[in-house]
Write a structure and sequence with these properties.
Helices cover 20% and strands 23% of the residues. The protein is built from seven helices and eleven strands. The N and C termini lie far apart (65 Å).
Length: 307
């Protein structure tokens, strides 16, 4: 019954405790009440269930160089946190099996499965369940339930509720753990909230995320990703066991501010002058690109192979 609805009509025989003469009006009254409740219940207008494979583009390969925070509205605190990041951190046992969080995973490298939770009594779709390789449980509730209190525990998937805007699903997510928005040190805190839209056009799913974080972001971070339906795709299990990878116990890899050697490499790669930022609100707009074209020595600084 995926994506379908049925109205079950009632008759007088369904109410043996009532005289037959009262059965029809009583049944009609109950039917009217049932229809009224059904109209108030969330109506699923688009079926997002299925297996989806990510559509790659230059913008969302998510294999960035360290220091590449261009286009991210990081404030001073967010840039400082990013500059202190050391990729060796991912070798710590407590990080090796860490799942990708809601603010990042939709731009991750793996396929997506979305399934539906159906109430066994009403047959209403009460939740969508998106899952990726190396993700955690991330239900999107459609039944209008209230969110947890502000002091409730946070998780990688957070708490998500969905509402319909025509055939588009709008999702609000809170109670997230601190997580990266780009896998090179760009982070958001556990105060972040995310507004998401799912838009389906045939076999294409567009996923739009707007991340709000008052601590590390000067402006909302708006990004999108595309998926294509693939009925033969499978999301494999992802068992994970942490192992020792050579890091000393109680040592947390990091850089002091101003000491991250990769910042200079990203400047050389893209021809960014020393007085221009490699992240922040300024880098989001076309004026920044024009400034680079006017001020940089990109054509002279990048070595040409064979010369």
């Amino acid at each position: 019954m995926r994506g379908t609805k049925r109205v079950r009509f009632l008759s007088a025989t369904a109410f043996p405790g009532f005289p037959a003469v009262l059965g029809v009006p009583v049944a009609l009254g109950i039917l009217a009440a049932a229809i009224s409740v059904a109209q108030m219940a969330p109506q699923v207008t688009t079926d997002f269930s299925g297996e989806w494979v990510v559509v790659r583009s230059q913008d969302n390969t998510e294999n960035p160089w360290i220091g590449d925070w261009f286009g991210l509205p990081l404030n001073a605190a967010g840039l400082a946190r990013a500059e202190a990041w050391d990729a060796s951190l991912l070798s710590l046992p407590e990080y090796q099996c860490r799942p990708h969080g809601w603010a990042y995973i939709y731009r991750g490298p793996t396929q997506l499965r979305i399934s539906m939770d159906v109430d066994p009594s009403s047959r209403e779709v009460v939740a969508f369940q998106p899952e990726w390789h190396q993700s955690t449980n991330m239900p999107v509730y459609l039944d209008g339930r209230e969110g947890p209190p502000s002091q409730a525990a946070h998780s990688w998937g957070g708490f998500s509720t969905g509402t319909w805007e025509g055939d588009i699903l709008r999702i609000r997510t809170s109670h997230l753990k601190e997580d990266y928005v780009r896998r090179d040190g760009a982070m958001v805190t556990d105060e972040a909230t995310v507004t998401t839209w799912w838009i389906r056009r045939g076999d294409i799913l567009t996923w739009i995320n707007i991340v709000h974080d008052p601590t590390y972001l000067s402006e909302p971070l708006i990004r999108s990703s595309e998926y294509r339906l693939n009925v033969n795709s499978l999301v494999p299990p992802h068992p994970c066991t942490a192992v020792f990878e050579g890091l000393e116990k109680d040592h947390v890899p990091h850089y002091q501010l101003g000491e991250n050697p990769f910042i200079s490499q990203i400047r050389t790669r893209y021809g960014v002058p020393a007085d221009s930022p490699t992240g922040g609100v300024e880098t989001m707009y076309p004026e920044y690109q024009r400034k680079l074209r006017d001020d940089s020595n990109w054509s002279r600084d990048i070595p040409v192979p064979g010369h």
